[in-house]
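Exam review. A common question shows you a sequence with its structure tokens and asks you to describe the fold in words. Practice with the pair below. Do the first one on your own.
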Amino acid sequence: MADTDSSRQSEEIEALSSIYGDDFLMVDSTEKLFDVRIRHEENPWWSLTIQVLLPQNYPSSGPPVFEIHGTWLGDHDEFELRDKLYAIYQENKDECVVFQWVEAVREFMNEKSVLYAEIEELNREVDSQVADDQPVSPTFDQIATHNVANVTNWQTDKDQPEILHGEPITDRKSTFQAHLIKVTSEQDVQDALHELKETRKIANATHNISAYRITKQNSQVMIQDCDDDGEHNAGSRLLHLLQILKVQNCLIVVSRWYGGILLGPDRFKHINNCARNLLKAANLIQDGSTKHETSHKDSRLKTHKKNKH
């Protein structure tokens, strides 16, 4: 088996070298340690490098060992990417997987570069607005609202959490509205979601996309989670918005009422836009918070992505 593994490793390395050319670098041929550079076509800052070590029992009974390096790659993104690569290995045990890994890293890199560009553009758009031009007085089909201008004294009643509702955005018959709740525990999140869906209009929304971040008191542990609620990738995008804006101890939910016309990528812009507007109106966004910082280096993250079908 060891001879078979060694032979398959050599064949895989030869193939990778041929495919990636100058982007493939053999670091140590004896240890079978090598780098593959994944270049971003438009901006080298987004490029990533995956370093791979092939252990003796790969691919028959163990995965490759790897590290991923990139200027922009924060803890949360790295954890998410690692999960993707290990999932690929689990689905392809006893197979050579490095090529699939490299292409998965490339896809991940491209998705994140687009996502961060969208959020930066959204930040610029909202920051350019004059705060007093349109006072926030959100209403939507008799959904109860609270005055976000009074958020300074915003308190959370565990029995009935206060919910702030943002101004709806309507595009091609689809309507989006954000809802904001202060939370300090995962139980608070469940209670808030339950309370929010007591409103029939919200409960009947096509999607209720949510994300939250909670900092445990007297610790560096960050708990964060997101739920697409059937709108693929929307929850993770909403969570990234909270991370980039450094919002903590809040649950943000964006309801979408589908109007029968597909919006394509515009739906993600509307989801983030109405969430960003409500966070800004609630004074929960620090000025100039556009840095791509996902967490403190010493933070431990608990991140799950829940998809409903």
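Now try the second one, then compare your answer with the model answer below.
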Amino acid sequence: MIRAENLVKRYGDFTAVDGISFEVPAGESFGLLGPNGAGKSTTMRMIGGVSQRTSGHLEIMGLDPEEQGPVVRAHLGVVPQQDNLDEELRVRDNLMVYGRYFGLSRAYLKPKIAELLDFAQLVDKADARVDDLSGGMKRRLTIARSLVNEPKILLLDEPTTGLDPQARHVLWDRLFRLKEQGVTLVLTTHHMDEAEQLCDRIIVVDAGRIMAEGSPAELIRRFSTREVVELRFGADRNAAVARRIEDLGERVEALPDRVLVYAHEGEAVLEAVAARGLHPVTSLVRRSSLEDVFLKLTGRSLVD
């Protein structure tokens, strides 16, 4: 469905995307995970045919998006990082105008819009102005709008940025339903839980390069331990304490606000810490996540 080989994008002397290669088969939910500035959105713009690559090869459904952009875009749905809805129009009219832009007939659009409003849980808001909607509702409307042309591939750039936890989970449910219908999802995110929930496979991207590729579970098994112990001793003590307990786990990381101990048995680590007369202000045992994978691969947090 999508194939990229040695994809490069430069802006003057700055290299935003530095020779990445990946493939996305039909029906997969594929994620690009990385911090702001990693090259995720630039990659999405090249896939969408709105930004020309500097070098490399890119195919979407066997077509080059630069040479056959209109044909490719006819089969794409795009959800940009920032909602770009017409705030003064009603919800229903936003979908109608967008559909007419694709040359779709009113006869087709009338039932399609009703279907999309139901999908986005916006039936009771159909005649409301967009600027009266909540952030979560606007995001669902943007996704509904991207589905007007029944795309084979849906590109989502940071789909839940700025949403509260409840709105994020509602949106996740809508995306799960699209995946069940066979739509290929390609999304960027810097939220580790989002990548774990939505993606069959991800690439971890930093500074325009791929650091690792695999399913979320595979990456966690490969680069982290089963559990992580988080200890907080205070910003002025964390580094010193980390040196005293570096033998208690497979790896120990001293961050400004906490110490992370990577081990397969977190409770045993807590007991060993207490046995050494060390008493953290707070402690927590949790399962490893993609955040830990990224920290291991790059030496810094996703939110740095």
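Model answer, second protein: The CA atoms of residues 172 and 298 lie 28 Å apart. The mean pLDDT is 92. Full marks require stating both points clearly.
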